[in-house]
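Task: sequence design from structure.
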């Protein structure tokens, strides 16, 4: 790999051992990927140092944990302030409602220590999988180093920013150096579509967009699809559901919808002037197949938990849930949890949505989600969600049955305690 003088200086230790370890990690990582050089980045989103798999820091200092786990370094050196503008993604715990989650006090203390460590090092504590909803909105062409597949596909496609799905280690190294290997979706030639998806059914609701994403992810795998035939003009919420689903059933990190996403006004532009390697159809049969796959784990209609807010809900989605409740109460024995970024939650509380949810027996939560934090209410057997991603992962992670449906069906399930959804 070719390094600039500045990068070589970092690798030689001129900026201290932590930056040296970070640069060493990036060089090793980049060489494995076949990157010929690094690229500057000033927008990094990474994980907090405490994750749900760590019961504690094991007697190590936070610096040691960062050095060993995040930088793959030998041990104990001081970690300096981050060089690149950086933020912390979603974590293992709601920092306010941790008792609702059932987090033990000792774990809570360790997670809070981890969080204040990140804050002291200049990492902005957004604590969400949707930083683009709460102030980190990269511009077209901006080279980023983000973790979290649902966020990556959103900023690559909808905003035209440039990032791969980074890991905890490469994101941490990018924070300290302001560099990331120049490969994958940083290269303009890799951003063209190779698969053409012809959509022949109406796609309008969040559920429709989730189903479409789930089908497209399966068809496209790790390639870039371009979709035509969409009659709707999707908003942020719909594209959030679509991208999260496509990144779940496949490894899609970028897509085009000509005239809607950032980098292509036409099918030809999306394909970079080439012919697609494959053309597939998304019609009634593909829609039904996606729905069946998402509901494959569930048989029981008695519902224990309704989860809304994967990816983290927007203010409008929270308002919609309050409206759908319409003064009704959540059924005894059923929980309704709505997840949103903390910054949006502040506004939701100001608007009275938090009170409306709580008075109905629901709960507004932030900073985490059941799949990342690995928690559901004690005794939960059946969950319901309007998120294809959560319906895909939570049964596997928590051993529960999962129903996927519309937000209307989810709220009805919370109120009645029964799942009565169907594909209309
Ligand atoms: Fe976000 Fe958790 Fe879903 S990280 S995208 S709410 S699985």
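Answer:
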């Amino acid at each position: 790999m070719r390094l600039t003088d500045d990068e070589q200086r970092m690798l030689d230790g001129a900026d201290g051992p932590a930056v040296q370890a970070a640069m060493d990690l990036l060089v090793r990582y980049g060489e494995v990927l076949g990157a010929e050089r690094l690229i500057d980045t000033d927008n990094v989103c990474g994980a907090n140092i405490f994750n749900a798999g760590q019961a504690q820091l094991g007697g190590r200092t936070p610096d040691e944990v960062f050095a060993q786990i995040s930088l793959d370094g030998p041990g104990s050196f001081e970690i300096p302030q981050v060089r690149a503008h950086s933020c912390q993604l979603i974590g293992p715990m709601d920092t306010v409602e941790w008792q609702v989650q059932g987090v033990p006090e000792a774990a809570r203390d360790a997670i809070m220590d981890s969080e204040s460590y990140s804050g002291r090092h200049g990492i902005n504590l957004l604590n969400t999988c949707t930083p683009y909803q709460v102030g980190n909105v990269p511009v077209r062409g901006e080279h980023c180093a983000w973790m979290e597949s649902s966020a990556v596909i959103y900023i690559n496609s909808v905003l035209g920013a440039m990032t791969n799905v980074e890991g905890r280690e490469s994101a941490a190294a990018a924070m300290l150096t302001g560099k990331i290997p120049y490969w994958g979706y940083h290269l303009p030639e890799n951003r063209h579509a190779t698969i053409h998806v012809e959509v022949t059914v109406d796609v309008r609701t969040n559920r429709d967009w989730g189903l479409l994403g789930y089908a497209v992810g399966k068809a496209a795998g790790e390639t870039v699809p371009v979709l035509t035939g969409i009659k709707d003009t999707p908003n942020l919420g719909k594209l959030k559901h679509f991208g999260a689903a496509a990144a779940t059933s496949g490894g899609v990190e970028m897509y085009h919808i000509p005239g809607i996403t950032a980098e292509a006004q036409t099918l030809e532009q999306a394909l970079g002037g080439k012919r697609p390697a494959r053309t597939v159809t998304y019609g009634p049969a593909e829609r039904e197949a996606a729905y069946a796959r998402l509901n494959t784990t569930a048989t029981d209609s008695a519902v224990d938990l309704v989860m809304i807010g994967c990816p983290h809900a927007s203010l409008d989605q929270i308002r919609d849930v309050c409206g759908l409740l319409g003064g009704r109460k959540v059924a005894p024995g059923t929980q309704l949890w709505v997840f949103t970024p903390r910054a949006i939650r502040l506004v939701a509380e100001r608007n009275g949505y938090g009170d409306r949810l709580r008075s109905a027996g629901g709960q507004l939560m932030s900073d985490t989600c059941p799949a990342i934090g690995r928690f559901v209410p004690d005794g939960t057997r059946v969950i319901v969600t309007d998120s294809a991603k959560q319906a895909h992962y939570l049964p596997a992670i928590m051993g529960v049955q999962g129903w996927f449906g519309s937000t209307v069906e989810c709220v009805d399930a919370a109120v009645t305690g029964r799942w009565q959804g169907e594909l209309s």
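Residues 182 and 403 are 40 Å apart (CA to CA).
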